[in-house]
Design a protein that fits this description.
The chain is α/β, with parallel strands linked by helices and 109 residues long. It has four helices and five strands. The chain has a single domain, classed as STAS domain (Transcription Regulator spoIIAA, 2-Layer Sandwich), CATH 3.30.750. It is globular.
Length: 109
């Protein structure tokens, strides 16, 4: 798994490539939680290159959503169909605003 963070005017984009599973979720968690602890309140998770999202990755997303509120938001950019299906099966698709690509997710802030 590869993670890259990009800073924009009002938002930080966390781009993830590869698999978010039990062996890589801790890196994902550390990256997202570090941003929140630094006071970054608007995050876009670019999941367009994520091949697999495990329950450990879902746990990070839900924990981050709780930690960033009130006053902040996490939005998803371009999740693959497999990631969309995982979110839907877990019943978490309603918790995150999802956009077709990174530009529209960043522009939504």
């Amino acid at each position: 798994m590869e993670i890259q963070v990009t800073e924009h005017k009002r938002v930080h984009v966390v781009e993830v490539r590869g698999r978010i599973d039990s062996s890589t979720a801790s890196d994902f968690d550390q990256t997202v939680m570090d941003l929140i602890e630094q006071g970054k309140k608007n995050l876009v998770l670019d999941l367009s290159e994520v091949e697999f999202l495990s329950s450990a990755g879902l746990r990070t997303m839900v924990s981050a959503r709780k930690a960033i509120q009130p006053g902040g938001a996490i939005r998803l950019a371009g999740p693959s169909q497999r990631v969309k299906d995982t979110l839907e099966i877990a019943g978490l698709d309603v918790l995150f605003e999802t956009y077709p690509d990174r530009e529209s997710a960043v522009g939504s802030y």
